[in-house]
Design brief:
Number of helices: 13
CATH architecture of the domain at 42-119 and 164-245 and 252-278: Up-down Bundle
Order of helices and strands: EEHHHHHHHHHHHHH
Strand content: under 5%
Number of strands: 2
CATH topology of the domain at 42-119 and 164-245 and 252-278: Methane Monooxygenase Hydroxylase, Chain G, domain 1
Largest sheet: 2 strands, antiparallel
Helix content: 55-70%
Distance between the termini: 79 Å
């Protein structure tokens, strides 16, 4: 038997990919797995890099789903939007548990790599900012962080000026015959969501007669699930940061854990949480 002859199959599996696409080709693994470039001599930096790179990949998928869900809501096609919003919430669950891995890094281990990070910080994540914008937490002043990369700046500026997914849900309420104040419908899309009494009353009507407004009721609950998952993600972030660096200043100049704790107070869909007290 010629032992030098290449096997053409193994238990039915194709072995020769010289003329066809392989698993690695399809996923671009050569590019992905060669994108880790530790700057310090410390063993633990690889964990830090991969933690953040994988988070960015998950955020890319989140944005893919959120943009599609917003378009479906805009077109009154709610069933596909429900699946997309549920998927985003589960992605956030995945990111919550990812912090468990980073939490294995101790303060001395992080201190060994911190000088090599320069001013780089998760605060500068273009995709995270875009997620906040599409969810309605708008802040025009934060565009300045991305001025050095014109494509990112322009992309975020478009996201800032486009109605959020919650704006689209409120416009859907109006199309369905619920009274929404003109001031709310014509609100400046570049500003963060502000609670509005007419929106709260509309959602209250939905919740008081869920069988009559089942699609809107389900949409509301999907949005509540989404924000709940987002809150868990933020909370796990701040607790991990506090565990590793305490209350030191963040690498990008923010107040670190103190800044992140303030972010926990932000409510994306205020009327959907306020109405619980009134029911």
């Amino acid at each position: 038997m010629d032992t030098d002859k290449k096997a053409t199959s193994w238990h039915g599996a194709q072995m020769d990919f010289s003329k066809s696409m392989s698993y690695g080709d399809y996923l671009g693994l050569e590019q992905i797995l060669s994108a880790q470039h530790p700057r310090s001599p410390d063993h633990n930096e690889m964990l830090f890099i991969i933690q953040h790179q994988t988070s960015e990949l998950w955020m890319k998928l989140m944005l893919h789903e959120l943009y599609a869900a917003r378009q479906q809501i805009r077109q009154d096609e709610l069933q596909p939007a429900f699946k997309m919003l549920a998927r985003v919430a589960r992605i956030m669950d995945q990111l919550v548990h990812a912090w468990d891995v980073l939490a294995t890094m101790t303060p001395p281990e992080y201190s060994a790599i911190r000088p090599y990070l320069g001013q780089s910080s998760g605060f500068q994540s273009c995709q995270y900012r875009e997620i906040e914008f599409i969810l309605g937490n708008k802040n025009p002043s934060l565009l300045a962080v991305h001025a050095a990369v014109p494509d990112n700046y322009q992309h975020l500026e478009t996201a800032l000026r486009t109605p959020s997914i919650y704006d689209e849900a409120i416009m859907l309420l109006a199309r369905e015959g619920f009274h929404i104040d003109a001031e709310r419908l014509n609100a400046d899309p570049t500003q963060a969501t502000v609670a509005n009494e007419s929106v709260k009353q509309a959602w209250l009507d939905v919740y008081r007669e869920p069988t009559k407004h089942w699609a809107l009721y389900e949409l509301a609950e999907k949005l509540v699930d989404l924000e709940t998952a987002f809150r868990f993600w933020r909370f796990r972030h701040v607790t991990t940061v506090e565990r590793i660096i305490g209350f030191k200043t963040g690498t990008g100049g923010t107040a670190g854990a103190s800044y992140l704790k303030k972010m926990l107070d932000i409510v994306l869909f205020p009327e959907l949480f306020a109405l619980r007290t009134a029911l």
